[in-house]
Amino acid sequence: MKAIVFEKIQQLRIHEKPIPTLTAGDVLIKMELCGICASDLAALRGDVSDYAPPVVMGHELAGVVVESRHPEVKIGERVTVNPMLSCGVCPECQNDLDKYCNTIEGIGHDIDGGYAEYMRMPKHGVETRKLIRVPDSVPPEELLFLEPLGCCLNAMRETFFSNSVAILGAGPIGLMLTQLTKRAGLATYVFEPQVHRRAVAETLGADLTFDTSPEAVAHLQDITRGGVDTVISATTNNVSAIALAFDLVRRGGCINFFGLAPDGETLNINLEEFHYAGHKLMASWAFSRSSLEEAKQLLIEKTLNFEPLLTDRFPIEEGLAAFDNAAAGLGVKTVVHP
């Protein structure tokens, strides 16, 4: 089979690999679609360190079971995965905080993931409920968004909201958050430098969209009379994004640094100013089992509109071009398929 392998920083290649063989309890998934995640792009650049190359990347996936050595899993079931394979027994796992488990292995991070024609789900993953089965009514074009939607729902639970929110970035995450914040009744403003992504945010219900110019910041401050109640940064948290977040939030407001930050990026705060500004600073990341279950239900109920998000498809053998497309910010969501 063909697979996209992250060999080392700045090195991605298409490999011919054997189709995974199963042992007792394992499941073989034939890929339908797998989305390119910003974390994969960051790993390839060397900005994040939670990957163990060489590895087949890919964790935002949709597939069908074609071989099962597990008595509870049937051939033909449409599935995706919770890509964090944890022990299932430690206090963190018992409290639905699997991402803090000391023995965690990530699908597409540490073990081979979905940028391939087939993927093996190990027995341990099945038995710790990391294989997510959905009805056939959920198409692969929507199913691949289940994991990132779970991340957004987790952020929604953790963030302090009042009446207004500014979302930085109109990539897939920012656009799902736009729909969720509007669903929650919040005045939603989206900041995005790319015109085509701002247009998608408008079609999905954003009250206003802005570029990231000083004039746009001043306009937002004017119409909100001092800034929004909440900022969610759904983009790379570099110096400019961090500054923008503080420019947009009102005194006493909340900033959630949801997006990844390059390794070594720091947040420098004058503690006296911070004290009197009263900002609530936080960072949400990943998902919980319960947020993935909620995401599954939203997909089944057709609550969100994913059609404008999936814009660019590449076969696996053109995987390098797919990564270039995603890194350039072309379209919105880039996916690969067999």
Shape: globular
- How many helices does DSSP assign? 12
Question: What's the rounded overall pLDDT mean?
Answer: 97
CATH superfamily of the largest domain: Medium-chain alcohol dehydrogenases, catalytic domain
CATH architecture of the largest domain: Alpha-Beta Complex
Which regions contain 5 or more consecutive residues with pLDDT less than 50?
none
Rg computed from alpha carbons, rounded to a whole number of angstroms: 20 Å
- Domain module tally: 2
Supply the helix-strand structural class: alpha/beta
What CATH calls the topology of the largest domain is Quinone Oxidoreductase, Chain A, domain 1
Biggest sheet architecture: 7 strands, mixed
How many strands in all?
18
What's the end-to-end separation, in Å? Answer: 9 Å
H/E series: EEEHEEEEHEEHEHHEHEHEHEHEHEHEHE
In percent, how much strand structure appears in the residues?
Answer: 25-35%
Query: In which range does the helix fraction lie?
Result: 25-40%
* Assigned CATH class of the largest domain: Alpha Beta
